[in-house]
Amino acid sequence: MKASKPVFFCTQCGNESAKWSGQCVYCGAWNTLVEAPADKPRSSLPAGEKSALSKNRVKSLDQLDGRDELRFSTRIPELDRVLGGGAVRGSITLVGGAPGIGKSTLLLQLCGTLGGQRVLYVTGEESERQLKMRAARLQVRGENLYVLAETDIHATAKAAEELEPDVMIVDSIQTMVNPDLDAAPGSISQVKDCTMALLRLSKARGLTVFVVGHINKDGAIAGPKVLEHMVDCVLYFEGERGTSYRVIRAAKNRFGSVSEIGVFEMLERGLREVENPSELLLSGRPENAPGTCVTCVMEGSRPILAEVQALITPSSFQAARRTSNGIDYNRAMLLLAVLEKRGGFPVSKCDAYINVIGGLTLDDPAADLAAVLAIASSGLDKPVGSDLAAVGEVGLTGELRSVTELNQRLSEISRLGFKRCVVPKHLRYALRPVPGLSLLRAENIGEAIQAAIQNP
To answer: Confidence class of residue 58 from pLDDT cuts 50, 70 and 90?
Structure first.
């Protein structure tokens, strides 16, 4: 019998190619093609699953079931917020994050909150004893929690068929293997085949599946990019290793918004929800210190106050250094250029360091004005008042533009004790009066700097 020829998979998009090349012809990525066997594996599902799927027939649009998806609460409000109101029956969710960030801890705590539901926890990374010790530390009871230490996808599917759980957790997808394939665990073909087996199992039985996936050094889920397309929801668990705070956000959600975030704090006994992230992120903020300013960004429907810090120092090199953490680097360079050209601050020969406290990543353009004020405050060595916040988008001509949900942002700023706020002069809609909060309207960054720094 003639041996089958190997094929090559792109680790970015999952595209198959008969021969190796330096660039993927489908997605254009360089040096991403890896070799994998081309053997066609047998089905990873029991016969009952295949027969259940074979009953599907072509239907007209009017014949389809129009009822909403069946949701249930995980009893972890921060996780429910990110999922869009709770987990969905028959869905598969991929939870990604760096090793040791807290993915397994979160899902094991989830097992403890799903009272009355039968949960199957499949672990391929830990032994039964290790999982028992961690459950005891997290004070997770095992009344309806069943554990399977297995890496074989066939054995996992069989166990799910016999137990008939309501929720199944697989930790992690990189450890699961199909013995019909010759590829190593974690390879492109193994990850694709095992994920497809779990996907078909979830849809056929209405089983809610949570899958753990590790990320590579680029911050993407390890394995083929097609893995994220196969699942219904992709969650990223993020956080700085030097801090105890963790942020979970959705990169894909077929049943809800992808703009919500959940905030947790890692403690000795597991993850604790942070109901008010603004107070947490502003704790320990120095008073009347140059180079810091507070802004309010929208993470989905939740307003969150974040502190932007900047440090401007004369450069000892011919080319000034630029560092940005928490704000997009290119956006930070744009704001520095606008500040020098339109605001009259000579920062081209100065080293600039910009940082967002708490490990947050600010994608909201409303943070532009706070970053500009923090840079100008550091350059002038004059503090922005500790009772002042700034909200506004900065254009290339130095003008300030209005942002969305400004009324909600101002209410949150006033609730946390701020007395003044710099806002754009031209607004898209009328603002509701906020008791105790004085609005400083500015048309451009020059007026904003004069109102916030030179007259604190």
So the answer is: confident
Q: Does residue 44 contact residue 53 with C-beta atoms inside 8 Å?
A: no
Place of tokens 């929720």: 167
Least Cα distance to 168 among 204, 102, 123, 103 occurs for 123
Q: For residue 165, what are its two tokens? A: 């759980």
Furthest-apart CA pair in the chain: how many Å? 85
Q: Is the C-alpha dihedral spanning 282, 283, 285, 287 positive or negative?
A: positive
Q: Would you call 399 helix, strand, or coil by DSSP? A: strand
What is the Cα–Cα distance from 109 to 112, expressed in whole angstroms?
5
Please write the tens of the pLDDT for every residue from 294-303: 999 998 888 9
Residue 38 has pLDDT above 60, yes or no: no
220 contacts: CB under 8 Å, gap ≥ 6: none
Residue 30 pLDDT > 50: yes
pLDDT of residue 443: 94
Q: CB under 8 Å to 41, separation ≥6 — which residues?
A: 178, 180, 181, 193
Structure tokens belonging to residue 60: 């007209």
Give 395-447 pLDDT, tens digit per residue.
999 999 999 999 999 999 999 999 999 999 988 778 888 889 999 999 999 99
The order of strands in the sheet holding 438-442 is 322-325, 350-356, 302-314, 292-299, 388-390, 420-424, 438-442
Q: Which amino acid belongs to residue 330?
A: N
Q: Which amino acid is at 425?
A: K
Between CA 453 and CA 456 the distance in angstroms is 5
pLDDT band, residue 374 (cuts 50/70/90): very high
Cβ contact 372:339 at 8 Å: yes
Q: Which residues are within 8 A (CB) of 104 and not within 5 positions of it... i.e. 6 or more apart?
A: 125, 126, 134, 171, 212
Residues 6+ apart with CB under 8 A from 193: 41, 44, 153, 178, 181
Under 8 Å between Cβ of 246 and 239 = yes
Residue 237 to residue 103: CA distance in whole angstroms: 7
Q: Is the pLDDT of residue 47 over 70?
A: no
The arrangement of secondary structure in 71-275, i.e. its CATH architecture, is 3-Layer(aba) Sandwich (3.40)
Residues 6+ away with beta carbon under 8 Å from 311? 291, 351, 352, 353, 378
DSSP H or E stretch at residue 377: helix 368-380
The third-level CATH classification (topology) of the domain covering 283-454 is Ribosomal Protein S5; domain 2 (3.30.230)
Amino acid (1-letter code) at residue 346: P
pLDDT class of 285 with cuts at 50, 70, 90:
confident
Say if strands 350-356 and 92-97 run parallel, antiparallel, or are unpaired.
unpaired
